[in-house]
Amino acid sequence: xxxxxxxxxxxxxxxxxxxxxxxxxxxxxxxxxxxxxxxxxxxxxxxxxxxxxxxxxxxxxxxxxxxxxxxxxxxxxxxxxxxxxxxxxxxxxxxxxxxxxxxxxxxxxxxxxxxxxxxxxxxxxxxxxxxxxxxxxxxxxxxxxxxxxxxxxxxxxxxxxxxxxxxxxxxxxxxxxxxxxxxxxxxxxxxxxxxxxxxxxxxxxxxxxxxxxxxxxxxxxxxxxxxxxxxxxxxxxxxxxxxxxxxxxxxxxxxxxxxxxxxxxxxxxxxxxxxxxxxx
Length: 280
Hints:
The chain has helices at 2-41, 50-71, 80-108, 133-148, 168-178, 195-206, 222-231, 249-265, 273-276; strands spanning 118-122, 126-127, 130-131, 153-157, 186-189, 212-218, 236-242. By secondary structure, the protein is an alpha/beta fold. The chain folds into two domains: 2-108; 118-279, Rossmann fold. The strands form two sheets. The protein has a five-stranded parallel beta sheet with strand order 5-4-1-6-7, with helices on both faces. It has a two-stranded antiparallel ribbon with strand order 2-3. Strand 4 (153-157), helix 5 (168-178) and strand 5 form a beta-alpha-beta unit. It starts with a helix and ends with a helix.
């Protein structure tokens, strides 16, 4: 009876190991497939796009190693305490990721408030002198808002990067002029290269953190942009999400979690009362 029970327990444990290995291999394969599809259909040079290839290779390596260790009778962790610590760490990482992604999603559906004093429109890529799809979407979203709110002005924020013949701010300004937005309502900020610089430089142009400001950016980016603006002292800030969809949306959603974490760890939010207002 004891022998039979031991055999059943061993079979159950081996079945669990095989399932775990298959899950790791499957997840790794999906990450690599996503990397290849996204790179072929869009570009392999996208910001932080390499994380999908790295994650895929790491997961598949873990899957193969997990199965090999099981065949030789070895385990990842020795003792109940080490296994418990590993489970707690994994649960914490998953919980953190889930919470941050939930907050990112709140920005996806943000539509802003009417009657804002200023819009800060964040830049995106420019191909030569032509706007990238993300930049066009942000600009068109800002134009719709400006048409509905004739007293609002727009600070167009974005410098000139590699492969760009004009600044992102100038590219947005051209689109706005073509759409009939008055030159008097357009203010260009052409020196920033990051979200933190976008916000900081734009508030310096506005000259006050007390005015009602809307941050116009791609839907996946709204949460971090608003957090940055409030941490910089913005007293009345709201997000306005520009539509973004397609195969790259999962990448940008995941990238936002990584970017938020990096900004937080390195103190780029200048964490103080302004930052914690986002969670009150």
